[in-house]
Amino acid sequence: MSRSVRVVWDDALTSYDFGPGHPLAPVRVALTMELARELGVLDAVEVVGCAPASDDELALVHSRDYIEAVKRVSASGRPDLAHGLGTEDNPAFAGVHEASALITGASIAAARAVWTGEAEHAVNVAGGLHHAMAAAASGFCVYNDPAVAIGWLLSQGASRVAYVDVDVHHGDGVQALFYDDPRVLTISLHESPRTLFPGTGFPEEWGAEGTAVNVALPAGCGDSGWLRAFHAVVPPLLREFAPEVLVTQHGCDSHALDPLAHLMLSLDGQRIAYAALHRLAHETAGGRWVVTGGGGYELVQVVPRAWTHLIAEVSGHPLDPATATPKEWRRLVRERTGQTPPLTLTDGRAPEFSDFSAGYDPADPIDRAIMATRKAVFPFHGLDPLP
């Protein structure tokens, strides 16, 4: 399915580190890359390095004043609460600009490879920092790397870019940065803002010409409901929008074990979503697919396995879920975290879902969420909200 795939990686990407005890621990990305390497996933891709995003590239979505503020914090390590740096979510640390700019540069490198045709698909698992705003850090995110990558694509002449965000938290930063730009379709499937940060992402937030799309799912939603909602909303909108490039954010904090949220997906359900987005990239965007990581705070049991499956799927060589985790990787997990590593790449689930086209159940909270989204945005795109 995939012709050429790049994985953008540099060990320095783990320098994005808010310190001991912070949920966004860089060990989760390091363990992902080690698991992918041990399983031979990286043998099927081209692994390339990256350079930090320049100030001009960051300014595609961020204000110049904010970039200078981040630099001052970076040099001094002192907080700047006016710009969201020095909070519990976003602690100030020396080197924060350099670390954040490198992650953003990795997403730009992925976008550049896809736009120029050097690669059909490209991945930055360290990226996906989707909460950062134009002039403020938010929700563990300092620079909004997926938004900068989209801004870069637009600056190169792209006229239609679609962004699909499957993180459990609303992709509020990306939505806000392109809310009035009909060239960018943002679709976010997330836990309801009534029960989870950042408190946005209602279906009524529809942006320019219905190009902001929000599927707000009830706490407790599992594989079958999530997949039903995904297929009821994402494929028809992508087919109608026909993007030149598909950009996706793959926070895996929708997993049942994630400590910061309340959805109940399994690793196996998430893997099905990756495959669906892969197919849609080929069907709707000519195969041009830029992929980032995102949230995910179960550092051993979930993130490394989920994103190893993601890289494998992007490469066109998906892994058998029953695959055992390598002994050397298990040893590394114990050494780095003191935790017991998972033994295989599956949660042992075989998710199934009923397609929304078979009918709408107004008594079902997931169906109500689906219909709220379809009623809000489908008419903008000439689509019928009803099944």
From TrEMBL:
InterPro entries: AcuC (IPR003085), HDACs (IPR000286), His_deacetylse_dom (IPR023801), His_deacetylse_dom_sf (IPR037138), Ureohydrolase_dom_sf (IPR023696). GO terms for biological process: acetoin catabolic process; epigenetic regulation of gene expression. Belongs to the histone deacetylase family. Residues 22-313 form the Histone deacetylase domain. Keywords: Acetoin catabolism. The keyword Repeat does not apply. This is Acetoin utilization protein AcuC. Pathway: Ketone degradation; acetoin degradation. GO terms for molecular function: histone deacetylase activity.
